[in-house]
Design a protein that fits this description.
Blueprint: H1 21-30, H2 46-58, H3 62-75, H4 80-92, H5 96-109, H6 115-124, H7 127-150, H8 154-174, H9 185-199, H10 204-216, H11 220-234, H12 245-257, H13 261-274, H14 279-291, H15 295-310, H16 319-329, H17 336-344, H18 349-357
Helix pairs in contact: 2-3, 2-4, 3-4, 4-5, 4-6, 5-6, 6-7, 7-8, 8-9, 8-10, 9-10, 10-11, 12-13, 12-14, 13-14, 14-15, 14-16, 15-16
């Protein structure tokens, strides 16, 4: 089983916003016009412009943020802090070509600063080039962790453990996707995941990656165990340790493929709570409820997916499977009259069984 490169999960590091495309569009529609203020940006230095740009990024005012990034770069075109911050924002907004151009410039100017830009370059690159970028980021984070440990900064050490672990997961995914046909791909993948586990045994993305590996080996029972373990750990994650949206979306798809529908519903419920315009998430949720024989819930979810498609949201490729699932699940649902009787407590199990038999 080969996982295609476009399905590869992105990973969160430092200021990585991890906004899905649908979520970005939703934020853009809800943006309010912001008055910059009385201070003239023309009088700002590059540092002030960068600070102002980051403020607008934090408020999801990306158009204004870009203007301040551009002004900062016009003043100091070789400022790697500006290059990195602008690159991160563009990457999260989907402008990957421009983002890669900025990170490349930053790396040429100062390759030894900011491991985050190497992580982004890994995400924006393919094959062994991506692996080398991740390895460079890991090398830098090892140094950062040693320095933090010497200063007894326990929280920083813990954060770096997670980031290093996730970086090894990202490298492992390359050997399951872009470089899966390399002669040593399986050994390299195993080695990366062993390192990921050693650096943070509580990282749910490690178990998700292990599940993906076992699926590629057609060991679905083991794959299911690892995927369920990822969900169990995910329950205890907070806002700082929860994997990014794209990673959890990938986990949901794996759980559905492994027919672990209860766990899939749990993960996807969190996804649609964050982004209620994600057609794929609603479809997967409908499919999972169907697998659990929760037919009314399945119909509700697939109907929501169809409504979003009718609004022009989501990929056209989902039109056919959404219509197909809606056609399958609708006859399995009780009629409106039967549903009202069930709510009133006058519709018993025997009647439901008779209706299903009919």
């Amino acid at each position: 089983r080969r996982v295609h490169g476009e399905d590869r999960a992105l990973y969160k590091h430092h200021r990585h916003l991890d906004l899905s495309t649908n979520l970005i569009m939703k934020i853009r529609r809800k943006q309010k016009k912001v008055t910059v203020g009385t201070s003239s940006p023309a009088n700002f230095g590059a540092a002030q412009l960068l600070e102002k740009a980051q403020e607008f990024v934090d408020r999801f005012e990306f158009d204004l943020a870009m203007k301040f990034f551009e002004r900062a770069l016009s003043q100091e075109p070789n400022n790697t802090q500006v290059l990195d911050a602008m690159g991160e924002t563009l990457a999260n907004l989907g402008d990957t070509d421009k983002a890669k151009e900025l990170f490349t410039r930053s790396i040429q100017l100062d390759p030894a600063s900011n491991s985050s830009k190497w992580m982004y370059m890994g995400q924006l690159s393919e094959g062994l080039e991506a692996v080398n970028c991740y390895k460079k980021a890991i090398e830098m984070m090892f140094t950062e962790r040693s320095q933090a440990a010497s200063l007894q900064k326990e929280d920083e050490v813990k954060l770096l453990n997670r980031q290093i672990s996730t970086a090894f997961c990202a490298a492992a995914e390359i050997f399951l996707t872009d470089s899966c046909f390399e002669s040593n791909a399986e050994n390299e993948c195993n080695a990366c995941l062993e390192q990921a586990l050693q650096n943070d045994v509580t990282n749910p993305e490690v178990y998700q990656a292990l599940s993906s590996l076992r699926m590629s080996q057609c060991k679905n029972d083991e794959a299911a165990q690892y995927a369920v373990k990822a969900v169990e750990i995910l329950r205890d994650c907070d806002e700082n340790t929860t994997p990014p949206y794209a990673s959890r979306s990938m986990l949901a798809k794996m759980l559905v493929e492994l027919q672990r529908f209860e766990e899939a519903v749990e993960v996807i419920d969190g996804l649609v709570e964050e982004d209620d315009e994600d057609v794929e998430a609603w479809y997967l949720l409908a499919f999972s409820h169907h697998g659990l024989q929760n037919y009314l819930s399945s119909k509700d979810c697939v109907t929501r997916a169809k409504e979003l498609l009718n609004k022009g949201l989501g990929e056209p490729a989902f039109v056919e499977p959404v219509d197909e699932l809606l056609g399958v699940v609708t006859p399995l649902c009780p009629s409106e009259e039967e549903a009202e009787m069930a709510e009133d407590g006058t519709y018993d199990d025997d009647e439901e069984e008779d209706a299903m038999m009919d």
